[in-house]
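To whoever picks this up:

The nightly regression suite flagged VacJ family lipoprotein as changed. Nothing in the input moved, so I suspect the structure step. Input below, exactly as stored in the fixture:
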Amino acid sequence: MWQWLNNEKPALSLRSKGVPLLLVTLLASGGCASTQMAENAAPEDPWEGFNRKVFAFNDVLDRYALKPVAKGYRAVTPDPVETGVGNFFSNLGEVRTALNSVLQGKPANAGLATSRFLINSTVGIGGLLDYATLMEITADEEDFGQTLAVWGWEDSRYLVLPFFGPSTLRDTTGMPANMATNPVNYVEDDAVRVSLSALNVIDIRAGLLDQEELIRGDRYRFIRDAYLQSRQFEVSDGELGDDPFASETFDFDDSDFDNSGQDDSDSGGDEVTD
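Regenerated output under the current build:
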């Protein structure tokens, strides 16, 4: 049984599924981002001055509170258990994916998400084991922010939220609906509900520890650009646009492959004499 738990966890996207977007921002730990605002803010980030201040606030909270806890969690938690915890919360996220897939007019994806939830909740022992993936049943993750994009709110301003981290005005608008579709929020016992939410936050943060090494240059801009690109990728379901090389109208110019400038050494090499 443990071999299923010990499968490598998939890379975490820069968004939170079912819990506050806290933690995604926390890639910024380990050093305070520059608070100097660029003279010309990016078009998608007109509130950069405000966002940088909130970013710095979140960074302090992460460095002195969440990151140490996440490191401790990773140190004492066996890999199979950590994978099982991630699987458990990912399985709960299938509820949100199924609902938003219906709202976006994607019945096939809704069916796949529902199948994943039913399989992993039963055969997978409450979602601890991801049997659905082993059966090659996968679904594109969806949330209400993506639903709003499908409904027409395509472009939105970047916004960093206190405690919650990177977002956009559109995604922030969708947060209440995302929280409403998180099964953890319906646990009646306060202690259990809070404990599960905290565990989810810590598990997500622990999964981001290794990714911090990827950050280069201005940490604020790096995380902003990564978040916006990730969200665009998710909204478009991974479609990156037309490939010109795959187009029937694409034509090669023979001059692109002209080897006339190369030496004819291959065809006219020295003769070999006995």
